[in-house]
Amino acid sequence: MVRFELTVQIGRSRQSSHRASSSQSRSRSRSRTRHSRPHSPEDRIPLVERVPPPARDDDPASIYLPPSPTDNTPEKKSLPLGLRSSHQHLSTSNNESLTNGPPPADEPPGLNPSPKQDGSRSYTDFSPLRRKFILSVITIAGFFGPLAGGIYLPALPVLEKEFNVSPTAINVTVSVFMMTFAFGPLFWSTFADWKGRRPLYLISLAIYILANVLLAVVPANYGALVFLRVVQAFGSASVVSMGAGTVADITEPKKRAFAMSIFLMGPQCGPVLGPVLGGALAEANWRWIFGFLAISSGILWLVILSSLPETLRARVGGGRIYTERPIFFWPPSMSSPLAPSWERGPPPPIPTLKGYWNLFIYPPIGIVSFNTAMLYSTYFAIAVQLPTELSQRYKWGPSGIGAGFLAVGIAMIVGSLLGGRASDWRRARAAEQLPEDTKIDPEFRLVDQIWGVLICVLGTLLYGWMVDGSKHPAAVLFATFLTGFGMNWVFVTTTAFLTECVAQQAAGAFALGNLLRNPGAAIVSVITPTLVAKMGSGWCFTGLAVLDLLLVGTAVIVLRLKCPGWRADRAAKMQLAGKKAGGPAAVP
Questions:
Q1: What is the DSSP letter of 502?
Q2: Is the N end or the C end of the chain the one with fewer CB atoms within 10 Å?
Q3: DSSP state for residue 586 in the 8-state scheme
Q4: Which sign does the torsion angle of CA 404, 408, 414, 416 carry?
Q5: Do the beta carbons of residue 541 and residue 463 sit within 8 Å?
Q6: CA atoms within 13 Å, Cβ hemisphere of 69
Q7: Per the UniProt record, which residue ranges are transmembrane (predicted)?
Q8: Contact at 8 Å (CB) between 244 and 336?
Q9: How far apart are CA 134 and CA 125, in angstroms?
Q10: Which residues are CB-neighbours of 333 under 8 A, at least 6 positions away?
């Protein structure tokens, strides 16, 4: 009965439309007749349910869409920019039905990222294999900057004679490297969050390679050595900020801590393996130190040019444009193609010096920057004093001293991996106990820092008294293991917290988080020998342990208690700024 009535209505509409208008008008009239003709409740054809695409709450590139004037739903969720057009197309009025045909010509044929089998949308379109490849490449790239600082140390006595300068003058080349490496990421992260990551990997590594080539071949001139060390540090500093941003691009927040721990293995292994490699190469010729860095980083540069895709979500979205491309690009190009506009995430705020200052004075970032500087300075105090203690107190040779750094190096790797795994595991357990759409606050990860601080403090305390009492070298190395393990446990959770706290400025936040580390280490390397000579190793490192416990431990507790309020205030300010600008504000 329903079918017959509907057929008669359609037929009548066709006859009247044929006499009144063209074929296109007939189609529109048929559609109007179908929707405007009244039916009884029993005969009415049910409308297709309009369900908007699921929002990815963990996507840092989500924006707030205000409710449609014709929408009766009380609340809208945050939707990613790639889903905005689809959401607006699906949110029709209650008097309209949703067609099952293709979208209009001005609508995108697909959405990014691709849907999963359960209907949700994946955070990225890069395959698991490609994500592992990207993570491996940036981890190796992150290894070269700290490696250049550590591999140089065993050659300092040789360079004193080669350049005919004093020990203080040759130590200046170490200080300028560390200072440049501290502030260089601020420059590179300015472009890493705005212009894309792939071109900057290539440009910065090219600068690093050029500096190493010149250091290996130029005549022995002290001024040239200082200048080229600055250039070397500047080129290698980029990966510190860009690597963290790349991890945030391809890894969803619930798995980000472990991925960040993998990336941090590169920068953390550099200072450990550097002295071992530098001691071996310096015995042959000190120029081979820089020759080795130039050759190895040149190979990495070719790998990045030919196979590393762009990951910045403001340029490629979830990376769907790479799903059909082979892993090796030919012909290679400096920059990547842009994804369609509806697939790209919103661009990060335009970086400015004022913006960086505002980011730095944001209490969570300022406090974690201080925390990492304190712990890294404690570790570096041990690192600069350990060779002296092993050579003078235990009569170890250069090769043995280099091998002694392996204990703390292994500790850093294990601390990063276990710390990242533990933080992700706790976050996953908390997510299972909460309602499905409930977000987990970034400061949830800060609880994990307390254990790392305690372990680092214990290791520092043991190191001072083990050395002071001339205990067995194994006890001394075990103490350094605890210090490195606890320090990196804190570092990996801190980095994951930063990438979630200010997701759109992950590279800049990570650079600011490292801002105080190297200057702090430079200061400690100068004053530690004097403090040990006047106070003894036991009381010197006891003082450092107490400072870490009081200052860093208190800061972690303050962050845990006050961070939700600070984050809410920042979000309100950004929303207000967005309204004044006449558009939606990005979620911080």
A1: T
A2: N
A3: B
A4: negative
A5: yes
A6: 0
A7: 133-156, 168-188, 200-220, 226-245, 257-282, 288-308, 359-381, 401-419, 446-466, 478-503, 515-533, 539-561
A8: no
A9: 13
A10: none
- Whole-Å CA distances, 351 to 12, 502, 512: 64, 14, 13
Beta bridge partners of 586: 63
Rounded to whole angstroms, the maximal C-alpha distance in the chain is 107
Region for residue 147 given its phi and psi (left: phi exceeds 0; alpha: psi -120 to 50; beta: otherwise): alpha
The half-sphere exposure of 581 on its side-chain side, counting CA atoms within 13 A, is: 11
Q: For residue 390, which of 284, 288, 283, 279 has the smallest C-alpha distance?
A: 279
Name, in order, each residue with C-beta under 8 angstroms of 523's C-beta and a sequence gap of 6 or more.
377
Residue 63: strand, helix, or coil: strand
- Residues paired with 121 in a beta bridge: 115
How large is the C-alpha radius of gyration of the chain?
29
The number of residues in the chain equals 588
Asked if 552 and 374 count as a contact pair (C-beta separation under 8 A), the reply is: yes
Tell me the pLDDT tens digit for each residue of 290-301.
999 999 999 999
Structure token digits, residue 83: 């889903």
CA angle centred on 521, ends 409 and 150, rounded to 5°: 45
Convert the pLDDT of each residue in 429-487 to its tens digit.
877 877 776 777 777 777 778 888 899 999 999 999 999 988 999 999 999 999 999 99
**Which H, E and C letters describe 169-199, residue by residue?**
HHHHHHHHHHHHHHHHHHHHHHHHCCCCCHH
pLDDT at 377 over 80: yes
Cβ-Cβ contacts under 8 Å for 253 (sequence gap 6 or more): 58, 60, 496, 499, 500, 503
Q: At what angle do helices 473-501 and 398-432 cross, to 10 degrees?
A: 40
| 504: exposed, middle or buried (Cβ count in 10 Å: 0-12, 13-18, 19+) | buried
- Give the N- to C-terminal CA distance of the chain in Å, as an integer: 57
Q: SS3 letters for 302-370?
A: HHHHHHCCCCCHHHHCCCHHHCCCCCCCCCCCCCCCCCCCCCCCCCCCCCCHHHHHHHHHCHHHHHHHH
Name the phi and psi angles at 125, rounded to 5.
-95, -5
Residue written as tokens 């369609």?
340
CA dist 271 and 227 (Å) reads 22
